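ARCHIVE CARD
CATEGORY: sequence design from structure
SOURCE FIELD: tokenized fold
FIELD CONTENT:
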């Protein structure tokens, strides 16, 4: 068993913290009594608005720094009990600039690991992704932690992103075996919720559908809408991050998903309904110039291991999660377009 880092009284660093997941996790850590939460962000993708709701807490510290600069990470991790390494580039950004994406996701992760080892950080939580299973016709049935990677027929950017997460997990594993670093990798499904951004290809079906129907435009679906999607609400992700720190688990990768899958068509209809509109979806042909994350058939992300090992299970279903997102947006929340 590895080190358990109790939330109360401990000091945490969240890289890429001015973000959807970072802001929710920082809020939860503060609510549960953390001694300090430092948010490190270069603001390449993050936004100060994302952490505006917690900036008044004296235990919150903002560090403007870059994970590609090891000296900055060495300074930021000094005295920290736990590090949550969220700083990463996702598929849509990877499509625009793959070299930069690989540098951030691989070299940035190695820098974070090095800083943790040098400064004796007790535990690193590494947010991985269901992209570690790949995309395309090989994705079907129950995806468990031992499911192999599939790449046939998928967009290069999606495969590069998934491969970078696999490499990140293995860099953590290497540091555990050789240097004793305790870590937990969490393979998130597509995260959505309050302070939603436009960077996740699957989450665009939520936020872009909302944007269209509020303007009175019909929602759009690529193909027949039968493809399976997996989402997890940001509040559940924050709870999983905290549970990973507080547990004695180490050297393990765990799926973090919502209660059940949904098809694209079901999702678009649900967003339209909750936005108070009665508009039929338009079905579009795939656009080869855009990144599209495809699956071969019905599949389910099994989160049983996270329940057994961390005592975590999702609490927010899609209807409730989308209701919260829309309520946030309609009371003045600004979606991040970075």
């Amino acid at each position: 068993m590895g080190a358990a880092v109790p939330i109360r009284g401990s000091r945490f660093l969240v890289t890429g913290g001015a973000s959807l997941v970072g802001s929710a996790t920082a809020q939860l850590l503060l609510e549960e009594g953390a001694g300090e939460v430092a948010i490190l962000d270069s603001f390449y993708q993050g936004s100060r608005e994302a952490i505006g709701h917690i900036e008044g807490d004296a235990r919150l510290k903002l560090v403007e720094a870059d994970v590609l600069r090891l000296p900055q990470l060495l300074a930021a991790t000094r005295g920290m009990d736990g590090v949550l390494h969220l700083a990463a580039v996702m598929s849509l950004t990877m499509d625009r600039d793959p070299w930069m994406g690989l540098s951030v996701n691989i070299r940035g992760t190695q820098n974070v690991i090095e800083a943790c080892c040098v400064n004796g950080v007790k535990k690193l939580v590494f947010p991985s992704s269901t992209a570690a299973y790949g995309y395309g016709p090989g994705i079907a049935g129950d995806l468990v932690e031992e499911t192999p990677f599939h790449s046939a027929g998928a967009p290069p950017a999606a495969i590069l992103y998934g491969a970078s997460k696999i490499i990140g997990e293995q860099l953590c594993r290497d540091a555990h075996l050789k240097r004793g670093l305790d870590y937990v990798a969490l393979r998130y499904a597509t995260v959505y919720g309050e302070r939603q951004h436009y960077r996740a290809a699957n989450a665009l079906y939520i936020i872009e559908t909302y944007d269209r129907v509020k303007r009175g435009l019909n929602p759009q679906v690529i193909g027949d809408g039968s493809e399976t999607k997996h989402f997890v609400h940001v509040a559940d992700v924050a709870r999983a991050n905290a549970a990973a720190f507080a547990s004695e688990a180490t050297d393990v990768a765990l799926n973090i998903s919502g209660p059940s899958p949904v098809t694209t068509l079901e999702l678009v209809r649900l967003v339209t309904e909750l936005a108070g509109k009665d508009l039929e979806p338009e079905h579009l042909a795939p656009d080869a110039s855009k990144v599209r994350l495809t699956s071969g058939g019905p599949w389910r992300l099994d989160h049983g291991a996270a329940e057994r090992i961390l005592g975590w299970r999702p609490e927010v279903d899609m209807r409730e999660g989308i209701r919260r997102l829309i309520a946030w947006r309609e009371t003045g929340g600004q979606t991040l377009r970075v």
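CARD ANNOTATION: The chain has a mean pLDDT of 90. The chain is about 35% helix and 20% strand.
SHELF: design records, drawer C
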